[in-house]
C-alpha cells in the first residue's frame, strides 16, 4: 500500500473480504494503491451505497476508470499486469479457474452471513469435494500454477480462499498435498510473505460479522 501518488484506489470496509485477493495481487506485483476505508456506520447512512453501480463495495479506481465487481477488478489487473495467460486459450482457462474459485467464495459468504454455526460442518464436507477438483488440477500442473507457466489472477483468487478456509478449519488441506504446496509457495513469495506478516493484513477481520 502507499500514501504517495498511487495509481489505484480501493474503497472497501475494514475487512479482508472481497478486497483481499486484490491486495495480495497488488502487493505481489509491487504496485502501490490507496485505500479508502468505509466504516459500517458510514455505509449504513446509505449515501455511498446509493452511488455504487450495484449498491455494493468494493470500488476500484484506476485513474478515471471506476470499477465495481471484484472479479472484473481482478481481470482488469490481470490484463494490465500480465496475469492473464499468454494467449486466448490460457485466458479462457484462467477465467474458468477464477469462476470455480468464485463458486467457493460465494458459498463461503452465504454460509458466513446466513447459517455459519449450524451449517459449517455440512459446508466443510462439500468444500472437500470442491477442493479435490483443484487438487487434481494442480497435480497435473507442471509449473505449480493453475494455468500455463506463469502466475495469473486466478492463482491469487485460489490462494486467498485457501487462506480463508485454513482459518476456518486449519486441517482442511491435510489430504491435499498439491494445494498445501501451492499455499506454501504463494505464502513464501517475498512480497506476499511481507504482506501476510503486516498489520495491514493481520489486524483486519475476514468478515464483517466476526464469523470465520
Ligand atoms: N459480486 C460483488 C459482491 C459485492 C459484495 O457482496 N459486497 C458486500 C461486501 S463484500 C457489500 O457491499 N455489502 C454491503 C451491502 O450489500 O450493503 C463483487 O464481487 O464485488
Automatic annotation (TrEMBL):
GO terms for molecular function: glutathione transferase activity. It is an enzyme of class 2 (transferase). It comes from the Eukaryota. Residues 6-85 form the GST N-terminal domain. It catalyses: RX + glutathione = an S-substituted glutathione + a halide anion + H(+). Residues 87-206 form the GST C-terminal domain. It is found in: Cytoplasm; Mitochondrion; Nucleus. Its EC number is 2.5.1.18. Keywords: Cytoplasm, Mitochondrion, Nucleus, Transferase. Its main location: cytoplasm. One of its GO terms (cellular component) is cytosol. GO terms for biological process: glutathione metabolic process. Pfam families: GST_C_3, GST_N. Conjugation of reduced glutathione to a wide number of exogenous and endogenous hydrophobic electrophiles. Homodimer. Belongs to the GST superfamily. Pi family. This is Glutathione S-transferase. It comes from Chanos chanos. The gene is LOC115805003.
Amino acid at each position: 500500500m502507499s500514501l504517495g501518488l498511487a495509481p489505484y484506489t480501493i474503497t472497501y470496509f475494514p475487512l479482508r473480504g472481497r478486497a483481499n485477493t486484490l491486495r495480495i495481487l497488488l502487493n505481489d506485483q509491487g504496485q502501490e494503491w490507496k485505500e479508502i476505508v468505509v466504516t459500517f456506520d458510514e455505509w449504513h447512512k446509505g449515501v455511498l451505497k446509493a452511488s455504487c453501480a450495484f449498491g455494493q463495495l468494493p470500488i476500484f479506481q484506476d485513474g478515471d476508470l471506476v470499477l465495481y465487481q471484484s472479479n472484473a477488478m481482478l481481470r482488469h489487473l490481470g490484463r494490465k499486469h500480465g496475469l492473464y495467460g499468454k494467449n486466448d486459450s490460457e485466458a479462457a482457462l484462467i477465467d474458468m479457474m477464477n469462476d470455480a474459485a468464485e463458486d467457493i467464495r460465494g458459498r463461503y459468504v452465504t454460509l458466513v452471513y446466513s447459517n455459519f454455526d449450524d451449517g459449517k460442518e455440512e459446508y466443510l464436507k462439500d468444500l472437500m469435494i470442491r477442493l479435490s477438483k483443484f487438487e487434481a488440477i494442480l497435480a497435473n500442473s507442471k509449473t505449480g500454477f493453475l494455468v500455463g507457466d506463469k502466475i495469473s489472477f486466478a492463482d491469487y483468487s485460489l490462494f486467498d480462499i485457501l487462506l480463508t478456509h485454513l482459518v476456518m478449519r486449519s486441517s482442511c488441506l491435510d489430504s491435499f498435498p498439491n494445494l498445501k504446496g501451492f499455499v506454501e509457495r504463494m505464502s513464501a513469495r517475498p512480497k506476499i510473505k511481507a504482506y501476510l506478516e503486516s498489520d495491514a493484513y493481520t489486524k483486519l477481520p475476514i468478515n464483517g460479522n466476526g464469523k470465520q
